[in-house]
Design brief:
This protein is an alpha+beta fold. 44% of the residues lie in helices and 18% in strands. α7 packs parallel to α8 and α13 packs antiparallel against α14.
């Protein structure tokens, strides 16, 4: 990749999506020249200043993400498997020293075997290849013979967090999707390695987003892989990793890595902070949206303050039981002034956000507690105006293949009332802006109700009916077979009790060993003192 900025840009269809202004062309896309795989961004006018950097704001971001903002990176925006997979394979096949490959799902199918062949070829050529896969995500998709083939070829393969008697919380997963090659290029994405992201046998691939990164930020990706690898087994020599300060600049883009870990809530705090910082737009794409009340409130407060908040979610999910739960939450979002869209394709798996065309996040974190609180996740936040504009252009194209969920007239009235700021009830200061925001949201809903949209009430009714039917079915099953409820509870309690006893035994043994070492150290010290005192006394005699 050259030193300039490259972003993967897609041209919008003739139908504009933003506010249904179909007669007006999109001026943003006129700046890009379409290419087969990437588009070269027009150079920025040096006379135009970039966004000012507030040191206090930067300190806040650094504390929340627990990472530094790396300058001098080249970042490419890659859409879907037909752009991500070729870029990944090209980088792997060009490796000369080391490949780090970490993914939640690596399947034993045509796509997985293609990557396995590329990794094996490099390992046999003398390149150090490390592959880390998650037990829950990959084990039933790739049987042991798949991993044995890699190991026999010299690939170091580890499985992350398999079930163990001593760890009843094995549900915590390594959900990261990270690749680095020779410490010079890295990839972060929402894509796993499977035919689902490819056009195989005429099937439509899943919609997803990834990044290609070059520059100092690759050192942070390698450091994140080092930590994951060390959790799954003995660590390799950290001296193999390059320091970010020693990696030359590859572009002009500033970016940082957010490493999600169980109990850390880094991405959750970042998402809330960006929602509070957004001034004009906050456009979110998520595959499994089951957000907390506080996060929905943060989005609602932004919408009430005049921010254009949009949420794009799957119209059909690979986790069928989750879809009714997601749809049941639409009403609270729409009444708060958030516009909700459902993707019309087979599955929307991307996890992205862009705010004010200035901050953009791409990675593996879904907007739910499993990703925020219990999984190992990894996202990259890009702070660059041109990249943010590219993200917005891609988002608008996605909306061209989406259906907006629109409220009925009663919900419209509640939504307009909610969009009036409670902080500034007077119309003298700020009230006009917020009342205008409410009127705009109301008029958008009426306009979309005429176009390509679906009723909130109808969507909610089907979701509530599904949830109710499932609850009745569970109640009937428990009534007839109460062991279905009792058995999992008993198994979990026994497992937890045994795990705690084993842990207590290990802790006590560790204390005994430590005391034994201290005792032996003291004895050796006393013996050394006696020898020294004896040697000093000998000449005097």
């Amino acid at each position: 990749m050259s030193g300039g900025r490259r972003y993967h840009i897609y041209r919008l269809s003739s139908e504009a999506v933003g506010n249904r202004r179909t007669a007006r062309p999109n001026p943003l896309l006129a700046r890009y020249q379409p290419m087969d795989t990437t588009a070269q961004l027009a150079p920025r006018d040096p006379s135009l200043p970039g966004p000012p950097r507030d040191p206090r704001l930067e300190r806040a971001f650094a504390r929340i993400a627990d990472s530094h903002l790396r300058q001098g990176n080249a970042v490419a925006l890659l859409r879907n498997g037909d752009c991500n997979y070729p870029a990944w394979l090209d980088a792997i096949r060009s490796a000369e020293r080391v490949i780090h490959f970490e993914n939640f799902i690596i399947a034993d199918d045509e796509t997985g075997r293609t990557f396995a062949d590329a990794l094996i070829e490099r390992a046999q050529a003398g390149v150090k290849v490390r592959v880390l896969y998650d037990w829950l995500g990959s084990s039933w998709r790739a049987l042991p013979r798949f991993w044995k083939r890699l190991r026999r070829a010299g690939v170091e393969v580890r499985v992350f967090n398999p079930p163990r008697l001593t760890d009843p919380f094995w549900i915590r997963r390594d959900h990261r999707k990270v690749i680095t090659v020779d410490g010079r290029i890295g990839f972060v994405a929402g894509l796993c390695v499977s035919n689902a992201w490819q056009s195989v046998n005429g099937s439509e691939p899943w919609r997803d987003t990834g990044l290609s990164l070059e520059g100092p930020i690759v050192a942070d990706l390698d450091a994140a892989f080092f930590d994951s690898w060390a959790i799954a087994g003995p660590a390799f020599d950290r001296g193999e990793l390059a320091d970010a300060d020693t990696i030359p600049a590859a572009g002009e883009t500033a970016a940082r890595v957010i490493c999600g870990q169980p109990g850390m809530f880094r991405t959750y705090r970042f998402d809330q902070f960006v929602a509070a910082m957004a001034q004009k737009t906050l456009w979110i794409t998520d595959a499994y949206f089951v957000a907390t009340t506080s996060y929905v409130q943060a989005l609602g407060e932004a919408a009430r303050d005049g921010v254009d908040v949009r949420l794009l979610v799957p119209g059909s999910s690979d986790v069928a039981m989750l879809q009714p739960v997601v749809r049941a939450g639409y009403r609270s979002l729409i009444e708060a002034g958030i516009r909700v869209f459902e993707w019309n394709g087979p599955m929307l798996h991307a996890k992205t956000a862009v705010a004010d065309a200035r901050w953009a996040r791409v990675g593996s974190t879904n907007l739910n507690l499993a990703s925020w609180a219990t999984n190992w996740e990894l996202d990259v936040v890009v702070e660059d105006k041109a990249f943010g504009e590219a993200m917005e252009a891609m988002y608008l194209e996605d909306l061209a293949n989406a259906t907006e969920i629109v409220p009925g007239w009663q919900t419209q009235r509640r939504r307009a009332r909610n969009l009036r700021s409670r902080r500034f009830p007077s119309r003298k200061k700020g009230g006009v802006r917020r009342l205008a925001a409410g009127a705009l949201a109301l008029s958008n809903s009426v306009g979309h109700a005429i176009g390509g949209s679906r009723s909130l009430t109808a969507t909610e009714a089907s979701s509530v009916a599904t949830i109710g039917a499932v609850m009745l079915a569970l109640a009937a099953a428990v009534t007839v077979f109460p062991v279905l409820v009792v058995s999992p509870i008993v198994i979990f309690l026994v497992w937890m009790g045994l795990a705690l006893l084993v842990r207590a035994f290990r802790l006590k043994r560790r204390v005994r060993l430590r005391r034994r070492k201290l005792y032996l150290k003291r004895r050796l010290g006393r013996a050394s003192e006696r020898e020294v005192s004896g040697d000093e006394a000998s000449p005097a005699e």
